[in-house]
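Expect chain and fold; thus:
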Amino acid sequence: MNDAEFAQRYYAAWNARDLEAILALYAEDIEFSSPYIAALGFSPDGVVHGKPMLRAYFERALDRAPALTFTPEGLMIGARGHTLIYRNHRGERAAETHEMDLAGLVIRADATYETA
C-alpha cells in the first residue's frame, strides 16, 4: 500500500469511528505520542507503548468526542513514512507523522496540533 492509499484508509477508519480498522493500521509494538495522552491521564510523558494501550487511548478519545472527524489537508512523504495533515471536527489543524515498517504498519507515530 502506498502513502496515499494509507491516508485514504486512515481517514475512512477514523471518520467511520471504526476502532478495529483504525488499530489495523498500527503495529503491535507501536509507540504513539500525543499531547492528549498526558491530558487524558494515560502517561505523563505523552507516550503510549503497544497496541493494548493505544486501543485504550483511542477508545477514550472516541468516547469523549462523538463528533470526531478528520478532513484531509495534505500528505507529506518522507524516507521512513509520511505525515498526514488534517483538520479535526473543531476546525483545529493537526498532523500525525508515521514511521512505517516493511509490512506497511505504523511502528512510531507523533500527533501534533497547531496552536492559536
